[in-house]
Amino acid sequence: MTMTKAPQRRLVVSIHDVSPTFEQPVDRLVDLIHPILGGQKFAMLVVPDHWGAAPLHRAPAFARRLRDWADAGVEMFLHGWFHRDDSEHRSAITALRARTMTAREGEFLGLDASEAERRMREGRDMVQDAIGRPVAGFIAPAWLYGAGAHAALRALDFPLAEDHMRVWQPRSGAVLARGPVVTWASRTRARTASSLAVAAAARVLPPVLPTMRVAVHPGDVTKPSLIRSIDRTLRTLVRHRTPARYTDLLGAAA
Predict the structure, then answer these.
(1) Is the pLDDT confidence value at 87 over 50?
(2) Which letter, b or e, does each residue of 159-197 get, where b requires 16 or more Cβ atoms within 10 Å of its Cβ?
(3) Which CATH architecture group holds 10-251?
């Protein structure tokens, strides 16, 4: 009798907003997730110049740390340019998304294709110069993309991109993973409570999705309840899932 091999269940973890601005919180997050995942199978989303106040090329010590992490196997993604949304949103729907889904941090939601491409290209160059290798892909701040950002992604041929509901290849449009990202929010009590509830649900749901994605942010370290939830969630998920890299998805079905 032929035995059917069970499909692999993957766990993909990322640290967002990696910047000299947040060096200490990033260190705390690395110290938290590294032993749970059993190695460097996580991604860092690097902001080239967070809010225009932390240019990576003027922080050589931090850039060297990024290269060390990359050399050790951590995936490096470009994560916007400033991370700050400075667009004037003409669409009422887009303006509503910008206000409700993030605190002025959906940088690529309102950019036209030309400006989005410029920021992506210059940001990619800065991060790649720091890490000494190509970035794994592009992930927009707050997972928010406008039409211009999508056009720029295709023009620059980033290998991978991600929003809140999927991972895909920009050039072909092929979807590599589906399902919401488990993440936490520290901005308000209500958002914190909601994110804790979602994480608790994720811990008890059956492992149906082939790929589960988890994202942590520097602000998470400001609240002990979030740190406890992240720790418990990751420890629960690794019992049934194998820690994986985003690039592992290129050879796997969504």
Answers:
(1) no
(2) bbbbeeebbbbbeeeeebbebebbbbbbeeeeebeebbe
(3) Alpha-Beta Barrel (3.20)
